[in-house]
Amino acid sequence: IETFFDPQGYQLPDEIKTIIYRVAQEALDSLSRQDAKLHIRLGLRQQGDEVTLSIEEFAVDVSDSDQDVMLKEAAQQALSIMKQRTMLSGGTFELKASDDGKGILACASWLLDQ
Asked: Under a CB-based contact definition with an 8 Å cutoff, are residues 106 and 86 in contact?
């Protein structure tokens, strides 16, 4: 697991901290149950008044057709809970192929009250 965190010293509301923790926990728990070798990148970044949790998964040594199956399985396993937690807390949630097309990227974002 690779991690990256924005070095800004931002203050998040306790409710958002808890939701970020629960969404990340659900994603990592779901990914840990997969049989494939995975490289996972977990990040937290703030830009302006928005904070984003990103979870990116790269399967090691799988064919393109296997990647399509993994995308469907990942969405079925964790998307519902992760999306529900994010949306109920006023955030947005997106699941898509990673920028390079070799992985899966989940992003949960929240606008912070200023």
From this structure: no
Note the pLDDT of residue 102.
Answer: 74
Q: Which of 89, 83, 85 is nearest to 106 (CA)?
A: 83
Neighbours of 80 (CB within 10 A): 11
Query: Position 16: which residue type?
Result: I
Alpha helix (H) residue ranges in 1-98: 14-32, 64-74, 80-88
Strand order in the sheet with 103-111: 2-5, 38-47, 50-59, 103-111, 92-97
Single pTM value for the model: 0.76
Find tokens 């899966």 and name the residue.
Answer: 104
